Amino acid sequence: MDDADHTEGTSAASWRMGLIADLHHGLAPDALQRLDSFMMAVDSQEPDCILQLGDFNYGVQAKECMDLWSQFAGPQYHVLGNHDMDKATKAEMIDHWEMPSSYYSFDHKGWHFVILDRNHLRLDEGKYVDYAKANFYVDGHLRGYAGPEQLEWLRADLAETQLPTVVFSHQGLGMDPNATTESAAGAIESVLATANAEGQKVKACLCGHHHIDRYNFNSGIHYLWINSASYYWVGQQYGRMAPYTTPLFTFLTFRPDQTIEVAGRESTWAAPTPQQRGVPDWEKLNTIIKARTL
Q1: Which of 26, 32, 93, 174 is least crowded, fewest Cβ atoms below 10 Å from its Cβ?
Q2: What pLDDT does 7 receive?
């Protein structure tokens, strides 16, 4: 547990965290303007800290992005996303973002937070390999693993805290009812469910990656996927990116009663919309972060 420089214990007052996912600076052409909108909202909302859920930027060409992000004077937290290693190694991204490790935890005002790293390939011979310089463009069943060492760390970390806990992961968790304990997501979900069976510690798990607003409740855990700041990927056949007209992000308010309020934010599709592009199942996509109380 890395809780240096962070307050512990209970809090008698509510406090906020600014949260943004899948900015894709270096790919989305207007990502910097979208980040600027988030940072202006941060100035207005005055959160205690800010956190990005991965696929934030390419570390080899992201100085302007990081200069803007670093204007916030409080704690700044990072979750590694797969595309952050499109042009860099994991070690380079950890150094670029000044992360304590690829996965870590911290306490703040009566809450415990866990940052996971699911950016490993599990090769058929059982070897785990870090994502680096786009080596993850392989069969899907090989991607998105945390690895045995990280799972052991997660078990120990959850056992050490008595605080209500929120888990952050880039790749999505909690939505597949058929996930097994051998799968990339199911292995993590099993650890979280066991922790709750032993004391109801894990309150919520928030993820990015999928560029959609989606929610599920399982084993006492609120699973929430946070929509992208920038666009939905519709694929090469339909024009690659379907951008949102305005950026999506949210602010989480942590209450003394251990509830979490998710601030809602809505956008619309830029033309041509997924429907106009002929994207199958376009009606299942959305351009919102829905207001919720977890």
Answers
A1: 32
A2: 46
Query: How many whole angstroms separate alpha carbon 99 and alpha carbon 117?
Result: 12
Q: What is the dihedral of CA 120, 151, 148, 87, to 10 degrees?
A: 10
pLDDT band at residue 78 using 50, 70 and 90 as cut-offs: very high
Average the pLDDT over 103-125 and give the result. Answer: 95
Task: Output phi, psi for 49, to 5 deg.
Answer: -155, 170
How much is the pTM?
Answer: 0.95
* Residue 224, beta-bridge partner list: 206, 215
CA 23 to chain centre: 11
Amino acid at 3: D
Identify whether 100 is preceded by a cis peptide bond (ω within 30 of 0): no
Instruction: Give the pLDDT confidence score for residue 11 in this predicted structure.
Output: 65
What is the average pLDDT value for the chain, to the nearest integer?
A: 94
**What are the extents of the domains in the chain?**
15-293
pLDDT at site 125:
80
Reading the block at residue 25, the tokens are 């600076």
Specify the DSSP element, H or E, that contains 150.
helix 148-160
In words, the CATH class of domain 15-293 is alpha beta
Buried b (16+ CB within 10 A) or exposed e, 148-180: eebbebbeebbeebebbbbbbbbbbbbbeeebe
Going along 21-164, which residue ranges are E strands?
49-52, 76-78, 104-108, 111-115, 120-122, 128-130
pLDDT of 9 reads: 53
The residue that leads in pLDDT, 140 or 157, is 157
Q: Please state the separation of Cα 243 from the chain's center in Å.
A: 19
Which one-letter DSSP state was computed for residue 273?
P
Cα separation of the two ends of the chain: 24
Q: How many CA atoms lie within 13 A of 7 on its CB side?
A: 10
In angstroms, rounded to a whole number, what is the distance separating the alpha carbons of residues 62 and 225?
A: 25
pLDDT computed for residue 172 by the predictor: 98
